[in-house]
Amino acid sequence: MDNLQKIRNSLKRRSRSELRFRWYGRLAILVGLVAVLLLFVDIVGKGHGAFRTTHIQLEIDYDRDLLGINNLADKVELGMANWDALLKSSLRNQFPEVSSRRDKRKLYGLVSNGAGFDLKDRLLEKPILLDQRETLWILADDDIDTYYKSWLDGEPYAARLTDKQVQWIQQLHQQGQIELQFNRNLFTRGDSREPEQAGIRGAVIGSLLTLLLTLILSFPIGVAAAIYLEEFAPKNRFTDFIEVNINNLAAVPSIIFGLLGLAIFINFFHVPRSVPLVGGLVLTLMTLPTIIITSRASIKSVPPSIREAALGMGASKYQVVLHHVLPLALPGMLTGAIIGMAQALGETAPLLMIGMVAFIVDIPQGFTDPATVLPVQIFLWADSPERAFVEKTSAAIMVLLTFLLIMNISAVWLRKRLERRW
């Protein structure tokens, strides 16, 4: 009976230990989920405001004398035209009581510094508006945008505004001439020194061009290397050495690949800095080990009976691999490639080393045009002193996380959709 009781007590202790171990695991998962949830709440809380921006309604008079132009087709006249004069005249008409020079400067500061160029684009789009009037919603300055959003939230932030500017904003609000609208600039424009004018389109296009080149180079090379190592390479010390180095390269810090790209592609081959071409080459080196490893794992998962049956039917080794092994392993290869691309999309350090940290305003049109990428754009905005760039940074992070989420969901869907069970 004593031995039986000892066994029962031992089983109870083991059960309690197992139960505690399970609860430790659940607690760890819970802590991780809470941390991720808090991170997302913080990002969304700071960044949701960037998707809307403040606009002021003004009556614009496209007076040719005020502009100083006679012919819209004359590029010289267009370049010399005083587009800001239209905005200043409209603001003076809106607030005729403003008379001192200092107050007028503050009044003109209600609208964005780049609003005049928006009027230029508008007039070039509709030349018939010359010497005509129309009512437009004009983009407000970033300080006005920050104050108006905080004022609507009940916590006004007027550190960089004068009392008269606050009074003008409240007057416009009472008249229904100031409101929040969808921020199209965020998705249609490149970077800018002015927060209200800055957008992520240039960075998104740069990321897409860089990832496209990375995929074109890394996927065929990675799959070919995996097939050779797994199906054709002899098993000797040399191939063992290659396999060990591929596995080690997968764990090398990404900044090392940036240094490698700086030394080889830029300093030796003289590839221009800050272009998707050099970015794609560097990210190709970084993602190759991941694609090779996942491709080899997919090839190993194909049952040996498939190869034996094909060989038994008289197929050559090449035909076995091309017609049977590769199609069956392709879903796993695609999944590994998508995961590698998602990793490349979020990389910053190697691209900083090759100069893709430059201030780029224009939208890149090709692989050799100056460009930046979305993670680097986030890095640049996070280092900007203007308060309005805080929400822009969080909004860009939200866009980046959305792309990463879509890519990872696509990888899971492809694996479930195309995998075969034996």
Give a description of the structure.
By secondary structure, the chain is mainly α. α1 crosses α18. The model has no long low-confidence stretch (mean pLDDT about 90). It folds into two domains: about 130 residues, no CATH class; about 220 residues, MetI-like fold. It has a three-stranded antiparallel β-sheet. The two termini are about 50 Å apart.
SSE pattern: HEHHHHHEHHEHHHHHHHHHH
The third-level CATH topology of the largest domain is MetI-like fold
Helix share bin: 55-70%
The count of strands amounts to 3
Structural class: mainly alpha
CATH superfamily of the largest domain: MetI-like
Mean pLDDT: 90
Number of separate structural domains: 2
Estimate the global geometry from the Cα principal axes.
extended
Q: What's the helix count?
A: 18
Q: Please state how the strands of the largest beta sheet are arranged side by side.
A: 2-1-3
- Main sheet, how many strands, which sense, barrel? 3 strands, antiparallel
Which architecture of the largest domain would the CATH scheme give at its second level? Answer: Orthogonal Bundle
As residue ranges, the low-confidence spans are: none
* Text of the CATH class of the largest domain: Mainly Alpha
What value does the Rg take, in angstroms? 30 Å
What would you call the quaternary organization? single chain
Q: End-to-end distance, in Å?
A: 51 Å
Strand percentage, roughly?
A: 5-15%
